[in-house]
């Protein structure tokens, strides 16, 4: 197992380097890019050559591309003047990126975890109940909910949510992020409630369908029949045997969904004015803030790759059939 | 003869300056809500939301090149030798007035020395807590002169003030042409007379900066979060900045580029050192918060949760403003000193023929494009390059008067017939090689696609080969900047003034200095391009073809230098001649609108004033009646 984990960690580093190289290539090699073009974007509306040159020096763009890439990856692994890992400085914000990314990652984490709790609490019970009462009125309503939830884009759901709960009824306070430690529980919670719900609804619908399908499949398995034959109560059969087996595949999906969200729930963050990683990614792309884009991309890649690893390891514990050698 | 001329220049300059000061201090011009010294109720906090600040240089005044930042510096945060009255053009908002200078400068006979006396009692805000001196003004010029601080408009000073080159390695390098004999006097020595020098002294980079704080920030943009006030307001939390050493300084809490800024009154500000004509300072504070949801910003404005929102309202909200009497007066459209235009490349066929460029000017449906843009409230149909608030004579420059706005196809075809690209002289560009598949670069963001179509429809009768390609705004500009691409015609660009004198508008777009490199130009039409530069950038053949067919490449460099060297009173007339040459001889543009800036305000704003210089709401002279203290809003 240890050898497997080490192998996967090495693979993770390799993936990060490759992604860095690809992102670099997008900005520096493809047409319309390059050090000169990037520097010009930060040299004002009248980019005089001497100012462009100074910008290049300050951004480290005056070096050959290979050296730039080497310096970036070197700083990433051994740290830069702003600490470890070396994530550089934003040329738009004019501040070191590490604290900005950490602060924003924390915001995104709150959004993702809250939404995840909500979608698990909504999606799995609905899926399980639907599986236990297939083809009933509840099942049909539940699956209709799932279909609607999956079909409505987040930006529509967000706008409708804002209209219904904020602008029209004023039941919720509106957009923005109110840090827990600064504003207290109520403002923090009430500002997150709608984004959590909007994000959760999409995933809850998917999880309801998935858990229903899995449980229905498991219910017909031999070991379920054996459990019943042993004289176990129906409740014990379902909870201890059925649910465990049927929910194991959800772990994979959950891990990747969480990873995707942690890498930035771009649309939700923009609609609800939540300063997370997704919002930073959009802003950085708009302003061609190369290092910010590279860092967000790397963080996203790291989280997703790492989540994959965690999911694989978790599988070994959850499913006795899985072993890594 | 020369001496007499210079004496005349100096005398006229002095008279003009005196007149400007008198106009500014006399409070003679007022109208409607822009009444000077209106006696509006004090208090409240203006709450504004915006999607992002969008600074170009981290809000460091030395390099920052964004109008909204200039508004904050000039109105609220910083004082320099000269400023504006922060009102609209009709009230003199584009005319420099003394700020911490006691009055107009003493100008030498040769027009090359400007001596200022400074007021006493102008204080830096906490934690610096000391009087502003001439050294603080000189220091701001040393910052401009320092290469690592990337003063984006440093060319207005470097090569103008003796010894300024914008390439100094250290900030503490003294400038030969700036003397500070004592704390209240400063003298500028110029290399040549510059008639709009006072305008240049209004720019934010020239405002007083305390060395004891700014010395810690020697890279472009770094000083922004630590900005020390010398004016009526300051960042909230400024008093907590520990300036005992560079290491102890942490960004001021009232400003976070990712979240917003809160300005509060500067306790050290003495209104007696200022004028209510310039700064009424009615509000207790200003909060600008970041909200990434544009629709939400305007909804919050409608709900009274914020007081101000700049920019174009979402369609639903705009409809309310325009049709619902409840919202009458919410939307303000003020002349933004910005021209939107179609640019034509002098070296791209068929626009390398002036008759084609003139024909385009005659055919272009400006009314239609404006309608697609949003209608009359969007601005005035442009007949020339410079907005009237910058050059009042602009409205009288109208060489294509046959086009009254909707385009005049007959006149355009007549013009086209004179072109070498109209082979059969029927008023249509039909020289296959040059007239087929001509790139028309447009934008793909609303409402541009509709505008592109209207423009195209008006031009295709004479240029049937035009082919529309739409890109995002940023790509549009970067494409135009690349000389070798030789984009024939584009509706992408617009241009705004740097300061309210014509040179501050024309310089970067028509002077050959506006072609900085092969991949960086704001002079997209390439007026004044030289043979050497054309060769260097790989369009030597196109340059040669132009010269062979047309003779000399049109240039305004010499005329521009002549104009800017004239005394203030003669500058406008000289630039009117220059602009006439641009419109009639060079013909690089079809200017189609002198655009307005839109600001939406809730009725809580009970006195709305527009700042012509910055092109934004004048926070300093407006008033709000929401009873909010800034610390409760933040």
Largest inter-chain interface? Answer: A-B, 43 and 51 residues
Mean pLDDT of chain B: 92
Number of helices of chain B: 19
Helix proportion range of chain A:
over 70%
How far the N terminus sits from the C terminus of chain A, by CA atoms, comes to 6 Å
In whole angstroms, how far apart are the ends of chain B? Answer: 63 Å
Strand content of chain B: 15-25%
Please indicate the percent range of residues of chain A in DSSP E strands (runs of 2 or more).
under 5%
Please, could you describe this protein's structure?
The complex is a heterodimer of chains A (325) and B (634). In chain A, 76% of the residues lie in helices and 0% in strands. With 325 residues, chain A is mainly alpha-helical. Chain A starts with a helix and ends in a 7-residue tail after the last helix. Chain B is of the alpha+beta class. In chain B, helix 12 links the parallel strand 15 (438-443) and strand 16. The longest helix of chain B is centred in the first third of the chain and has 25 residues, at 2-26. The radius of gyration of chain B is 25 Å and the shape is globular. Mean pLDDT of chain B is 92; it is low at 1-37. Classes of the chains: A mainly alpha (325), B alpha+beta (634). The interface between A and B is large, with 43 and 51 residues.
Descriptive keywords:
heterodimer; A: 325 residues; mainly alpha; 14 helices; 0% strand; B: 634 residues; alpha+beta; 8-stranded mixed beta sheet; 5-stranded mixed beta sheet; 25 strands; disordered N terminus
